[in-house]
Amino acid sequence: MADQRAPAGTKRDRATAQRRGRILDAAVMCFLENGYHQTGVRDIAKRAGVSLGNLYNHFAGKHDILAEIATLERTELAPVLALLARTDPAPAVLDGFVTAYATYLAKPENVILTIEITSEAIRKPDIGDLFVANRAELVDALAAVLTRGIADRHFRAMPDPRDTAHLIIELIEGTAYRSVLSGLAMGKLLSGLKDFIMAAVREG
Amino acid sequence: MADQRAPAGTKRDRATAQRRGRILDAAVMCFLENGYHQTGVRDIAKRAGVSLGNLYNHFAGKHDILAEIATLERTELAPVLALLARTDPAPAVLDGFVTAYATYLAKPENVILTIEITSEAIRKPDIGDLFVANRAELVDALAAVLTRGIADRHFRAMPDPRDTAHLIIELIEGTAYRSVLSGLAMGKLLSGLKDFIMAAVREG
DNA sequence: ATATAATGAACGATCGTTCGTTCAAGAAGA
DNA sequence: TCTTCTTGAACGAACGATCGTTCATTATAT
After folding, report:
1. Mean of the per-residue pLDDT values of chain A
2. Which residue from B201, B200, B197 is spatially nearest to B173, judged by alpha carbons?
3. Are residues A112 and A120 in contact, defined by beta-carbon separation less than 8 angstroms?
4. Does B159 contact A119 at a Cβ distance shorter than 8 Å?
5. Do the chains contact at B115 and A118, CB–CB below 8 Å?
6. Of A40, A120, A142, B90, which one has the greatest count of Cβ atoms within 10 A?
7. Which nucleotide is nearest to A11 (CA to C1')?
8. What is the CATH number of domain B70-201?
């Protein structure tokens, strides 16, 4: 047991990790095309090129696959979160964030997947918790930017910056939903969205 | 045939209409508790106190039941729409609308049902169309109020009142979702919501 | 040789829907 | 008014398909 390092180093382990990834990718595609509940475990296995039984060697079940996808969504938002950490003037940071998040959500996949996860989150507490945690991270970072903007007199004094952060995020996501459901390009809606947000937070 | 009025007056027809209503009510309850796809047609029939086969005498199938519920949602919003038709000063009308719509959505049933319908609307065009139509009605009425407020110098000149109307509605709904998902009372979130909306539209 | 990844047949449950049948309410004929 | 005929609402067994999951077996890397 002396030289037991590199736990994921063997050829086998690498292949296993790759299989897991393929299954997750396939699941995402299936959930996007047909929705979570309309997707069968066989659909995922077939699409991933994996046997039905083997899928259960990698995941405890269908529910676990969705839970893992939900946690993975968090890492996809890392670049957007990074934008909020910049030290440029708060209004510029806010503007950049709105653009970046809206652009991320301009991909219908991301919106549909989020809706799928949200609607499952209502009745599955573990997924609901993931959702809330992901959201809190985004809200905290945005609220910090708002607070800084208030201190610098770029933004108006608002009752609760965290509350405002929630509202701004809801605006972006709501616009993205609308874009997907109505077929309008996100680009067409972005300027109106920004105008509204800036008006809501500006010093006045 | 002289005195043959009341074409839907027979005892039979009234009983039939009542049965339909019971089925719809049962379906709503089931969809709320377990979600659309997790609800079986047998669950609905059992809850309505109706035989499985008979349910198909009243509805073409499970999908049709959801479609009818979606259209029924429209009529439930009639009181809220009526508020928007009032001729009080625009800011007061807007305030009343936000309160009313938020109060309507403060009932978790309404939010959950809306989410359930929305997520089905993505892949079922007929339900998607219903959703868009319902939304358009609300947006048009709200946009008219905004336009009036702009003319009266109560609201700032905004690029597109319809766009703004969309955003305001998305704010209210987003806040309602948050209220349901996080367990916070809608009352706690309402003042922050109003503050944000008023700041976004006020003359400045 | 040993451990484990991979396989797909099989399981019981449940899915949405269809079907033949029963029976009571309304229309027509006496 | 009483009787017959017609209509369609109500029923639940049955259908074929599919669901998520398990497991004994085979293949393969260590």
Report:
1. 91
2. B197
3. no
4. no
5. yes
6. A142
7. D29
8. 1.10.357.10
